[in-house]
Amino acid sequence: MTRAFNLLDHKNGWPTLAFVGLVAFSASLVVLTGLDGLTAALLGAPAIVINVILSAAVAHIAISIIGVLLRKRLRKENAQMRTAIDSMAQGLCMFNAAERLVVCNSHIMRCTALRRTT
Known about the structure:
By secondary structure, the protein is mostly helical. It has helices spanning about 15-35, 35-45, 45-85, 105-110; strands at about 95, 100-105.
């Protein structure tokens, strides 16, 4: 089964963040460069310095918004996975290479008196 490319896929999230930041920075720098006289007159500093600072702020806001969306999607996927694992009729447990318990469902927790840590 193939999975369609999704810009908000948490595994590919960093390229999306970088792309959004670059686009937001570039677009806002172009817009602000067109307003050189206004920004320089209002703030009394060289226009390019003001434009770069404001563009960086716009890019930061855009990256923050996309980051929030990525975290929200990841939380939703984690909740779905927990629900699927806990609704299995059999006990399920997975161990890592160091033989430490990584994942288990509620049936195993009841049988072994384990407590949920996260």
